[in-house]
Amino acid sequence: MLDKGASHMEQIDPRALRNVLGCYATGVAIITARTPDGEHVGVTVNSFSSVSLDPPLILFSVARNTNVFRSLKEARNFSVNILAHNQQSLSSMFAKPSTADFKKSVFTEGHNGCALFHDSLAQLECDKEAEVDGGDHLVFLGRVTNCHLRTPTKPLLFFRGAYGTYSRDQLRALPPADSSLSEFSVTGWG
Ligand SMILES: Cc1cc2nc3c(=O)[nH]c(=O)nc-3n(C[C@H](O)[C@H](O)[C@H](O)COP(=O)(O)O)c2cc1C
After folding, report:
1. Domain at 25-163+172-187: CATH code
2. What phi and psi values does residue 59 have, to the nearest 5 degrees?
3. Helix locations, 33-80, DSSP H
4. Cα(119) to centroid of ligand 1, in Å?
5. Which atom of ligand 1 sits closest to the CA of residue 94?
6. Is the distance from CB of 48 to CB of 27 less than 8 angstroms?
7. Closest by alpha carbon to 147, among 95, 79, 91?
8. For residue range 108-163, what is the model confidence (pLDDT) as tens digits?
9. What's this model's pTM, rounded to 2 decimal places?
């Protein structure tokens, strides 16, 4: 018989948990925002996920002990840059506190003023919808206000602690790069 009490008492080894979670292959995104002074900030995440099409909602989680955390807490909006296979160095730059330098990257500012990196696969501009406690992370829920399909190329992926890309060469025919939000909703996130 299952001893429910004992199973609740079990300690999960953090290293084992990281190794198991690392088996879930993901894309890689850079979240960008602005500080109250207008300074650009950004952080590399693989916790990005779609949530809802109607209303259009996405989420990502950020560790509370990162430098970028406070800026994201204060920000009313942010953007999500979904990275292409050739943006690994950009991803690495925004994954280390000391190296995130917007002067070393090519970007434009979207409607919400947040950075949209050149060469990204796609981008989402969002208003912050909610924040949800996630232990040592905080989950940010965003409502999509604009979305952009950009470079039709292979994605940057992350699996078991290493970067990779998508090997199937028959990439699905992509919708036109200037798809509006309504066209996007019709085609869906499949
Ligand atoms: C592929 C990849 C995915 C990551 N995903 C996340 C994530 O989802 N949430 C998070 O808080 N940190 C994530 N990190 C770590 C942050 O990028 C890193 O801690 C952050 O850049 C620290 O910088 P800061 O303290 O200056 O903000 C990821 C790193 C990499 C390389």
Report:
1. 2.30.110.10
2. -145, 160
3. 68-74
4. 20
5. 21
6. yes
7. 79
8. 999 999 999 999 999 999 999 999 999 999 999 999 999 999 988 999 999 999 99
9. 0.88
DSSP 153-171: SPBEEEETTEEEE---S-P
Q: Which of 30, 31, 41, 46 to mutate to test the pocket of ligand 1 (most atoms within 8 A of CB)?
A: 46
Using alpha carbons, list the distances in angstroms from residue 75 to 15, 42, 112, 187: 32, 12, 11, 30
Look up residue 126 and give its two tokens.
């969002």
Q: Ligand 1: which of 35, 39, 43 to mutate, most ligand atoms within 8 Å of CB? A: 43
Each domain of the chain, given as residue ranges in start order, spans: 25-163+172-187
- Protein residues whose CB sits closer than 6 Å to any atom of ligand 1: 28, 43-47, 61-63, 66-68, 94-97, 100, 137, 158
What CA–CA distance (Å, rounded) separates 58 from 72?
A: 15
